[in-house]
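Many introductory courses stop at the sequence. We go one step further.
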Amino acid sequence: MTLVTQHIDSLTTELMRLNFMAQELAFGIESQHQLLKVRQIGLTNPIVDEVKSLGTTMAELAEQVSDEQTELAQLRALSQTAALINSSLEWESVITKAMDLVIGLTDAERGYIMLMNERTGKFEFLVARNMDKSDIDDDQFAVSKTIIDQVLRTGQPITTNNAQEDSRFKLEDSIMRYDMRSIMCVPIVYQNEVSGVIYCDNPFQQGTFGRKEERLLMAFANQAAIAIKNAQLFEQMKDQIAEVTEIRQFLDNVFSSIGSGIITTGADDLVHTMNPALEEMLDVSAEDCIGRPLTEVLPALYEGFDTVMMNVMEENTVEVIELNTVLPKRGPSFLSLKVSQLRDEDGRAIGLAIVVDDMTEIKQRDEKLNVLQTYLPPAMLQDITSIDVIGLTGEEVISVVFADVRGFTSFSEKLEPEMVMEIINQYLTIGADAINEQRGIIDKYMGDAIVGLYGTQLNRFEDHALRAVQTAITTVEHVKVFHMDLPEEYRLSYGIGIDTDLAIMGNVGSPSRKEFTALGNALIYAKKLQEIAQSNEVIISEATYEQVKDDVEVEPVERPTRSGDKILQAYKVLGLRA
């Protein structure tokens, strides 16, 4: 390109030199013609005319070469803008530099690029530059909205060399307000759709733009349209990649944070992925396991597991397997495996996904809960926060309520067995409800008697003696209420004894059936106190009284046991203190 420019420059210079020489020759011939004419020597005019014509031709050639040189410079600059535009996908800065080149080529004062925002559907200024290669502030934008709208609507370029005198635009508000002169606006077209405009103007000079400048700007607009679209597609691709990467990172984080072990395989039954939870559970590393057969990685799988995997792959079933095995760090363990198909985005089965849960602690807890459920009401089970620390054997100071229904023997002889069972169960229900209300444990039913325990490993309370007394008082009161709607012949009463003493707790019975109970003086003495209690009386021991004396009104009693061999020192409960 440099050599061509040099040759054109030399040619232009030579033509201008020849033009100058022709002009001098014509002037010399003209002078000689006048001199000879004075001396009456004639010289034909054609010689002078031809010399003048030759000078004119030389001048025209020089001008044409100069125009060609200008156009060549514009084409060279256009080539530079094409290379610049396509040199990077960071298109906003590139398009800005290209706009500066175009402003310089067209002698424009300002240049703007407007593009349609695909989200809002509105046209927005993307680039606004002036001849000093600096950005134009928003408040300094001065464009003809009429011309821009017309180019956007028709897709055809518009050039005016003096908008003030152009009949198409001279009455427009923006033309008059900003005193505009030379304006050139061309569409940015991509795939037959107008997506924006390039607008150049020179508000101070008329006749700035011609056909060459318009063609140059159109060529630049075509380049810009492709570059802008490519850049937009690139931005969309970057956004999609970023979104996919973010989703992948999120899924990786989820995969890593799941408490259950997860392992996936391909159709070849080789391990593809393994999460940290399973690595910790099996005491292995995913790196060592990936690529190995599944049956080598999971511990002690039974022989039929191959059949399970085949059924899941072929029939799209979900299989749950419970497996007793031995884990390296945890010892004997109970695992639950949920096996299902792993599918691709088209729904095709491409392998297996297995969720592994270590259910050892849960199974042990369930076994203890099953034991506790036989002893405790649901409300008390909810109070137990750590079953693992509960021991079901040992010695404890407890309080025992021994409540016996009075007059049951003679009562039962007068009624049918069905009626006897119905009535006695209602009395026993009153006693059981009172025990449960104070979070006691029903130790046993003994015919027409019921025994409640307080302060055991399953219901440790500092005030277990007071709870036992409150249970007895509640039982007596509820029996009285029950009698209000009961025929007199069905009215029975309770005799209740309470003692606080050391007892041994634990499971007693045969291997096939066991009960949690208490053994020791507390139960024996509570039964003796119950025996000396009269109808609807609550008798407590000295030890119990010491625990509740600040809360209960009592009076001392001395009564012999049923055998008559000993006088007991005890207290009759009159009620709770106010």
